[in-house]
């Protein structure tokens, strides 16, 4: 994927690819260079995560919780939404904001919120469909009972909530112009987490 502003005429492809290209061309025309690069990285990571998930399921590989979370953070498809926030709100944030450890941690925590919520709420449905790529299912396969597995998910959420506020407290100031945009970005990241709950 190229980070250029020029829209190219592409051969006819699947509706999914066409939808992606439509989004990309709009982002490329309006978003900053940094935002375009972040979107490209996020989509690459998402595709790699989805492929890893499929390979894991096909090969029947059982991951430990740590490795499961690393793969799931990519395949859950949240980070491309974060990358689009800059486009939606016409933000122009320097790379140093996104390279700061606090911002990296906040995006990671928000992603974990989404995937933990998702796996809790979709567990029964995915069990009926024979899909075991689910953190609750992983805990169950390790010998936990249903309530114990959900209690463990609750503990994960508590840890991440604390991590969010610690990272937020350590976020530096870059000056009023940038700080105002950073606050808008953080609010939008929170909206992504809430949206995942509300659409259900």
Descriptive notes:
The chain is built from 9 helices and no strands. The protein has helices spanning 15-30, 33-58, 65-75, 79-88, 95-99, 101-128, 135-141, 146-169, 176-198. α2 crosses α3, α2 packs antiparallel against α4 (79-88) and α4 packs across α9. The relative contact order is 0.11.
Proportion in helices: over 70%
Number of E strands: 0
Biggest sheet layout = none
Secondary-structure element string: HHHHHHHHH
**Cα Rg:** 18 Å
Strand content: under 5%
* Residue-averaged pLDDT: 88
* Approximate shape: globular
Residue windows where pLDDT falls under 50 for at least 5 positions:
none
Cα end-to-end separation: 32 Å
* Global structural class: mainly alpha
Number of helices: 9
What attributes does this structure have?
single chain, mainly alpha, globular
What is the structure about, briefly put?
Helix 2 (33-58) crosses helix 3, helix 6 runs parallel beside helix 9 (176-198) and helix 7 crosses helix 8.
Tell me the layout of helices and strands.
Layout lengths: L14 H16 L2 H26 L6 H11 L3 H10 L6 H5 L1 H28 L6 H7 L4 H24 L6 H23 L2
């Amino acid at each position: 994927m190229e980070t250029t502003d020029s829209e190219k005429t592409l051969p006819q492809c699947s509706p999914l690819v066409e939808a992606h290209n439509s989004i990309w061309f709009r982002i490329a025309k309006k978003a900053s260079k940094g935002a375009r690069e972040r979107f490209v990285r996020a989509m690459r990571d998402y595709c790699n995560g989805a492929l890893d998930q499929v390979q894991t399921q096909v090969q029947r590989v059982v991951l430990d919780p740590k490795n499961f979370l690393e793969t799931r953070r990519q395949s859950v498809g949240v980070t491309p939404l974060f990358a689009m926030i800059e486009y939606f709100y016409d933000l122009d944030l320097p790379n140093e904001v996104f390279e700061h450890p606090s911002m990296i941690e906040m995006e990671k925590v928000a992603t974990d919120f989404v995937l933990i919520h998702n796996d809790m709420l979709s567990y029964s449905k995915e069990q009926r469909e024979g899909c075991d790529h689910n953190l609750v299912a992983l805990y169950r396969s390790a010998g936990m009972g249903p309530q114990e597995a959900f209690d463990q998910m609750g503990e994960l959420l508590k840890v991440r909530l604390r991590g969010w506020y610690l990272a937020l407290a350590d976020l530096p100031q870059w000056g009023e112009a940038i700080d105002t945009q950073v606050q808008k970005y953080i609010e939008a990241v929170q909206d992504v987490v809430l949206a995942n709950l509300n659409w259900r």
